[in-house]
Amino acid sequence: xxxxxxxxxxxxxxxxxxxxxxxxxxxxxxxxxxxxxxxxxxxxxxxxxxxxxxxxxxxxxxxxxxxxxxxxxxxxxxxxxxxxxxxxxxxxxxxxxxxxxxxxxxxxxxxxxxxxxxxxxxxxxxxxxxxxxxxxxxxxxxxxxxxxxxxxxxxxxxxxxxxxxxxxxxxxxxxxxxxxxxxxxxxxxxxxxxxxxxxxxxxxxxxxxxxxxxxxxxxxxxxxxxxxxxxxxxxxxxxxxxxxxxxxxxxxxxxxxxxxxxxxxxxxxxxxxxxxxxxxxxxxxxxxxxxxxxxxxxxxxxxxxxxxxxxxxxxxxxxxxxxxxxx
Length: 327
Ligand SMILES: [Zn+2]
Known about the structure:
binds zinc ion, about 50% helix, six-stranded parallel sheet, TIM Barrel, 12 helices, four-stranded parallel sheet, alpha/beta
């Protein structure tokens, strides 16, 4: 059986979206409005049951699509404490390798929310003993946190000896925000505040110059190209990523069909076929830093398991979307 593929950036919490998530009203006209009217409302509505069902479904479907490792970026502002255990159990139960983090942010409840997110990340690093699961620390994105929080996460990541997983320059709004705070851009802000550690995972990099991509590479960071998401959100093409050889592919909440993502890198990210395949293969190198060079056996859940999980999703999703409407 062939090796599985690696999804280097995604969101397990989004798997219920195809089960009737209401369209935002009025329709979003910018990337920040997409976040405010869709994803930040969905993540506030998550409770333990909907998160567990979503994660189990995403994990099982990943394996069915041939993906054996996922790097997840998680936020559930009304269910912070213990949320990473729900995700870890969901992945471990179906046999999916996962590298998990809580995306620290201040966008709902300020600095206290950031502290709670960081505590959840550190708690999980200490408590997790699942052979298939690792933890790192996470930041949502430069534009939703203060300088103080960035320093705190960076210091904690250095003390724990783990990388940081963060959205970076996905949309021009992240660049505009960092400049308003007096930095050349969000990468320069993260570096100036020592928020990144070697091996850190920077998702997107759409609005980085080739020089900035080289700077991220020199700092020991990975970049993750998410071409389907970038095209869908109309944030632009990540053209500068070719300046680094340390670039993997992620689906950013889309199903973990990595061959579709590879093909989208050609269609939407300015890659030739060789570069797109190299990005897919680079995920294996990224994975090996966490799990070692030996590949896990490629598992594929039985159809009956998937059908049972999809039935759970149909049962739970309407209540999740009712809560979402009220938020
Ligand atoms: Zn993302």
